[in-house]
Each structure stands twice: as C-alpha cells, then as structure tokens.
Specification:
Length: 369
C-alpha cells in the first residue's frame, strides 16, 4: 500500500526537535519559523510538555465522554482565567476545522437560521462546512457547495449588513487574522462594526482563532485587540503543541442541550494533559508577551523596499509580501539557509514560529533573508 499522494513534500525528514530548532535524519539543523502550520506554540519537545504527556500516558490515555474527566474541567477553568473568558463554556473536539463546524452548527441551532457570512481570502478548514466557508474554489467539491455561504470583502461593513438584512444569517465567521489568505488583519473599527451588526440582526459573531489565537498575536486571542466579545471563539493548532486538540468557547447566552454536539476523541486524557502543559508554559515563560516583543522586533527590521512590497502582521504571525513569486525564496531559505518558513498564495512568505522565538533567532532569519 502507498500513501495517497496529495502533499507536495520537501526533501527533508525531521528526526528530532527542541525549542525553535529541528534536526533531520542527516543531522542538519534547521531554524523553525513556521511551527508546522502554527501548531508548535511553546516550542518543540518542551520538557514540561513531554513530562505531562508521558506521565498521563502511564495512567490513562483514553475513555469516552460518557464519564467524568477532571482534566477537562481543569482546562476549562484555566483557559477561562488566561483568556479572559471565564464566564464562557468550553466544548472540546480535535481540530480547528471541527471547531469551525461545531461553531457554525451551534450558531444555526441557536438562531434557527441556515446561512453563514464569511470573507474573501478566508480559510476555515477542510471538512464540509468549513470548506464551504473557505474562499478557495479549488478545494470545494460539488458536495461542499450545497452549504449557504455569502462571501464579503474584508472591511466592507455595508456588504455584511446587506447580507444580514436577508434575515437568514446564523453567523458571521471571521479569522482574528487571516492566515492562509496572506496575513490580513481586520481593523478594530471593522470588528466593532461586525459585533454591532450581529447584535442588531440576531446573528452570531464567530471568531476563528485557530491560527491567530493562543498568544500568537501578542494577546491571548487576536480579536482582543479590538475589544469585541464574540458569541463563539474557535481554537485548534497551538492548543496542545502538536497533539490533536481543538475547542470552542461559547458565550453564556447559548443553552446546552444534551446530544447537541458530540465527539469520540475530543477532550481525551492525553490531549488534556498536553493542553494544560501548554497553558502552564505560556504563563510561566510569558510567551504571549514574548510573541509581542519579538514580533514587534521582526516587523521593525523587515521593511518594505526593493522587491518587498509590504510587511503585515501582529506578534509572531507575519506576512512578507513580494512583487514576485516567493517559492524560489522559500526553497533557498530551506535548503541554503536551513530555515523553515511558510507561504500564503504565490507572493507572501508567512512566519508562524513557536512563541518562544528569541531575538537572536529572529536575527538569524533577518540576516538570511
């Protein structure tokens, strides 16, 4: 049997990693400025994380959600404290896409409506509803296209209001910072307008913080720069530093009904041990504050000019837009300078490093660039 060949692979085989460094099977050291799609939040193989996962595996790794799991309750409490959403409820699942699916479903249950408003250049996942709400026709199958989704331009509040006037919109789904779309940050004014429009027309504001959350922007969630409090917040990626974990934070206005949402693996013991270790390390090592400081440093050093058209970002979520295709640059950074980076589209280098990135490591990248 062979793997289903859907990934374009680099000829690098990582064998071990620590902090922001990765070593391949040949012993070559790489600086990781991508964190495996923003998944590695506290750094590779953090000793506290490894200990928590190992010890939990030695006790109990899994049982279903038909029994009490005290680690879930502990995570809800800690997450409420550190995020500032202590009055919200937590539903646990396995990934960002699943979180967005559950958020849209919950918004529809809550409002009795069946349409979602999303935005151009958005990415919300590869499951059915999440794909339909993603502005990328190449990944939308005929089956996915049956969902009711209206796309608006980011920043166009008038277009959003026009869609809401139809009376059938359950939720407005927006990324705290657009990641795959090129690192585009919704303005604070626009976020506040969306919040007001959703309240006026009875829709749920859903903040997709799968990539932009968990300290990456220099706040726990990127939308907190604007001061809004959405109805639902979706999470994934860096939530458990590589162990599959996702979830949604749900405002107090929502009523839970038995059987409304469910999952087999979501909230399992191993995922909870990892997620709690992430919060511990984030707090102890002040990684949100580090993301803000090192991100500001990178943004101050990488400036438009020459072939760099624009530099966008907040914290350690940065896009460098070029006036040419960046694939050759990404290859040169990887194979010549031994630095992992990402891309958004054809023209943007995307940086999503672990939140423990140091200023000295940032300097290595700046020099290489």
């Amino acid at each position: 049997m062979e793997l289903f060949d859907v990934y374009s692979l680099f000829s690098v085989t990582p064998e071990r990693a620590s902090g922001c460094r990765v070593w391949d099977v040949e012993g070559t050291e790489y600086l990781d400025l991508y964190g495996g799609h923003a998944v590695i939040s506290i750094g590779h193989s953090h000793p506290d994380y490894v200990k928590a996962l190992s010890e939990q595996a030695g006790r109990i790794g899994f049982y279903s959600n038909s029994v009490r799991n005290p680690l879930q309750t502990e995570l809800a409490h800690r997450l409420g404290q550190q995020s500032g959403y202590g009055d919200y409820s937590l539903f646990l699942d396995n990934s960002g896409a699943e979180s967005n699916e559950n958020a849209m479903k919950l918004a529809s249950f809550h409002t009795g409506k069946d349409r979602i408003v999303a935005f151009r250049r958005s990415f919300h996942g590869r499951t059915s509803g999440a794909v339909a709400a993603t502005d990328n026709p190449s990944i939308v199958s005929p089956f996915n296209s049956g969902h009711k989704v209206t796309f608006c331009e980011l920043g166009d509040a008038d277009a959003v209001e026009q869609a809401l006037r139809g009376g059938d919109v359950a939720g407005v789904l927006i990324e705290g910072i657009q990641g795959c779309g090129g690192i585009h940050i919704p303005s604070e004014d626009f976020m506040q307008q969306l919040d007001a429009l959703c309240r006026r027309y009875g829709a749920v504001l859903i903040l997709d913080e799968v990539q932009s959350g968990y300290g990456r922007s220099g706040r726990f969630f990127a939308h907190q720069w604007s001061g809004v409090r959405p109805g639902i917040i979706t999470m994934g990626k860096g939530m458990a530093n590589g162990f599959p974990c996702g979830g949604i934070l749900i405002s107090p206005e929502f009523k839970a009904v038995k059987g409304m949402l469910g999952t087999t693996f979501g909230g399992n013991y191993l995922a909870m041990a990892c997620a709690l270790a992430v919060l511990d390390v984030m707090e102890k090592e002040k990684l949100t504050e580090n993301a803000a400081a090192v991100g500001d440093y990178l943004l101050s050093r990488i400036r438009p000019g020459g072939c760099i058209r624009e530099v966008r970002g907040r914290g350690l979520m940065i896009g460098i837009e070029y006036d040419c295709e960046v694939a050759p640059l990404r290859h040169a950074l990887l194979y010549d300078k031994h630095i992992f980076t990402g891309v958004s589209g054809k023209n943007v280098i995307r940086l999503l490093p672990p939140l423990c990135l140091s200023r000295d490591e940032a300097d290595i990248f700046i020099e290489a660039l």
